[in-house]
């Protein structure tokens, strides 16, 4: 096929490039807008109807420091005291919380702008899948590709969790879409620049993706196209990196400290090993364990069709799996950035199936629409069955008892302070899920005797006997259910009459768990915002 230089200095296939340009300039088709609206609604509904905490980091590495910036209250984990976390994402969420606070002091109002942002931004893979799928098989292909990402269980479940892995994954998908058209088609210099910006954002939010991002950059810029694509891409990537470096310099002390000191402490010093060690193959087997044999085979088959069109997405996903497999401590959230890429591939693979059926059966108009709609319904049914399976009974209810306990407290007009009795405050919702002005405290038998005046409500596990008879049980809640549905944790809310004296107890300090190796790096005086 004839090759020509485009205006940005890249090499394009004439017919494919012009067709792609025409499609991108056309108004958004109605089925695309409907899919985006449906994906947004599903994600927001899950946030309100199925509250859970996938990992404490979503609170105490993001929203709790954001709450401290916006309102002055928020407990700081050890990472903030040592200086290995960036204020970038908490700063953005602090602004959103401030907007929510204008509507009222109830936690659900304060956090509503964040919930809307996460639901909307988590639709990025849906939008990108539509563009990739449409390039394969027109609007029908775009519909089935985006439909897969709109309903797939992993993307729905993780969408509302305020983790750097989730936000970084969305930036990475967007960066790949801007810089990688697939099919040997090059993109304009402007798109390369913005691709660099988005992948640079993914790097500063989640530097652990560095190897995968390097593979993405190599696939986007290539090795035979000269220096120009690399220059455009690097110019874009330098923008967020420079901003993050300046922010760390101002807030932590040195440029990019949240990256290099984090790596040194957790990998070289080995602090992360204190959180647990898992076998090498743990992460590699997770998709099979979560989706089940049938679901895994169906998705793998669809990916097989899609990878011929977008092989770079698979390479990047595999690098994410492999690099994190070499880390001692392993969690599902670490490989989540690979899941949207696999979902896009499965969606694009489904679009190729539509294309093949269309060519072999000469489908037109209604027939093609029925096929596309049927495939999306089939994927929806599979996704729903996985989400309702025994495997997902665990994540859907993780920390549910603490979430519901704090929700009960937030509705009580008499609350003026909350103590968490003989439990780590990092297992709760923190000030993020308390009304504005209400402080959170550590509580033990000794402290309860001395510091009870600081709070009038207590959260503790069911069966706890409080030494202060003034407290009475208000309500109890179950959570952390296993695959059989049995609750492994129940938390109750206690209340005493009377008011609170915030000065009667100190603010809880950082909880170290087994991270003693990091103590020596704690500055003698480190001022928290």
Helical residue percent?
Answer: 55-70%
SS-based class: alpha/beta
Total of helices: 22
**Alpha-carbon distance between the termini?**
60 Å
Low-confidence stretches are: 1-14
Q: Can you give a write-up of this model?
A:
The protein has 529 residues and is an alpha/beta fold. The chain has 2 domains: 3-51 and 122-396, no CATH class; 398-521. The chain has 22 helices and 7 strands. It has helices spanning 14-25, 30-49, 57-71, 78-82, 88-101, 107-110, 112-121, 124-151, 153-158, 164-179, 189-205, 210-221, 228-251, 257-269, 282-306, 311-325, 332-335, 338-361, 366-387, 393-396, 400-410, 445-451, and strands spanning 3-5, 11-13, 417-421, 439-443, 457-461, 472-481, 487-495. A 5-stranded mixed beta sheet has the order 4-3-5-7-6, sandwiched between helices. It has a two-stranded antiparallel ribbon with strand order 1-2. Mean pLDDT is 88; it is low at 1-14.
SSE inventory with pairings:
Layout: E1 3-5, E2 11-13, H1 14-25, H2 30-49, H3 57-71, H4 78-82, H5 88-101, H6 107-110, H7 112-121, H8 124-151, H9 153-158, H10 164-179, H11 189-205, H12 210-221, H13 228-251, H14 257-269, H15 282-306, H16 311-325, H17 332-335, H18 338-361, H19 366-387, H20 393-396, H21 400-410, E3 417-421, E4 439-443, H22 445-451, E5 457-461, E6 472-481, E7 487-495
Parallel strand pairs: 3-4, 3-5
Antiparallel strand pairs: 1-2, 5-7, 6-7
